[in-house]
Design brief:
The structure is a homodimer of 215-residue chains. Chain A is built from 10 helices and no strands. In chain A, 38% of the residues are buried. At the A-B interface, α6, α7, α8, α9 and α10 of A face α6, α7, α8, α9 and α10 of B. Chain A binds a DNA duplex (19 and 19 nucleotides) through loops.
Chain lengths: 215, 215
DNA sequence: ACCTGAACACCGTTCAAGT
DNA sequence: ACCTGAACACCGTTCAAGT
């Protein structure tokens, strides 16, 4: 029973769920696949390359075609939702993706889909790319924090840290941050997406106003 | 010449510049401070605690008072600028901060300042906190990528990865991503900030429209 | 109180040798 | 071609013992 590249990635994602990113080691992964740690270097030149492949796998489906009849802002929301779901699908998934860059087909397809979508409604391709990446940063940052908060001792989580804070925060600040810690992360995410897309919409109106006289 | 907590943080930030986050080890830091690696555990309970203190130090000044006569949107921009500058002030600074949570006075002051600013123009405190964090995620994601790109071989950087991409990206996508890689990161950052703040502004108008009849 | 020296339990990675 | 076994050069962390 030979070990294929894809089997290694499968096993690594399983182990990621079990141990977290910090506990994911080549030796443990080898053991999970009934192989010595060093044997994995027949399939990947380094642990980093394996993590890249894991990140690629995590982004599967994010760039899948969107319903053409859907309004473009909803299509943007849908892509954001998909990306978040995929990043959260594995423990520390967001951190895994954050450590890698461009490369694989899933990543390219997803990025391409977003740039294409924004271009189709009137953004110059370059600006579409800027928007796509800015948006990606928000989603990544949000999901990294989401996954970090899950691992904090729920009782001794954010409330305790706030209580220990120096200087003592104002009551208004304290209650704002507490409310934030208690809020549903999915709702907070959707709020951020809405905010960002409102800015995108406004920018498009601006572009169209400039364009009507110029073109 | 005793070693103080602050001296360890100073040395760690120096070493961070020299070695990067991955090269920052307790043994090397000890050597830089003319001490055994293990001795550092008299000052910090763990490497993680040291990294937290480094993150705290990096955020110094971000929450400093803003000119009262400055329009609030410019104050928001100014805080974003400050945060970016601080994160970029040390090699891998953004990644250091991304690995930590709340806690210290600089962090609290900065967060408090932003929430206070947004509250003062009419956002409910809780919503102000949501906006602050969403914005923080974008800045962090952007600066992490900025610092990662600096370290990529400039010649074999993004262009080469794009050329190797599977499936081959459309010419439009390829040129969009190439233009993006060549663009001034500071300009791209300001663009993202503007986009986000346009959304914030629109949301505030919405709130005020609701409020006039309700209150 | 602060540091040394040495150890413990790990890492990622390499490589001759096996099958 | 793929894997084993063992090694190399490291890690973070602990702790008796020194000063």
């Amino acid at each position: 029973m030979v070990l294929r590249r894809a089997d290694v990635v499968d096993g690594a994602l399983e182990l990621l769920d079990a141990e977290g990113l910090d506990g994911l080691t080549m030796r443990k992964l080898g053991a999970a696949l009934n192989v010595q740690g060093g044997a994995l270097y027949r399939h990947f030149p380094s642990k980093e390359a394996l993590l890249d492949a894991m990140a690629e796998r995590l982004l599967a489906g994010v760039g899948a075609p969107l319903p053409a009849e859907m309004p473009w802002l909803d299509q943007c929301r849908e892509m954001a939702e998909r990306l978040r779901v995929q990043l959260l699908s594995r423990r520390d998934g967001a951190r895994v993706v954050a450590g890698t860059y461009v490369s694989g087909p899933n990543t390219m397809t997803a990025g391409g889909r977003a740039i294409e979508l924004l271009s189709s409604v009137g953004f110059p391709p370059e600006e579409a790319a800027w928007i796509t990446f800015a948006f990606f940063y928000f989603v990544l940052g949000h999901t990294i924090e989401e996954q970090a908060l899950v691992r904090l001792d729920p009782a001794h989580g954010w409330e305790a840290r706030l209580a220990e804070a120096q200087p003592v925060p104002s009551p208004a600040l304290a209650s704002a941050m507490l409310a934030m810690a208690k809020a549903d992360p999915a709702e907070r995410f959707r709020y951020g997406v809405r905010l960002f897309l409102a800015g995108v919409e406004r920018r498009l109106e601006e572009l169209r106003a400039d364009g009507t006289s110029g073109v």
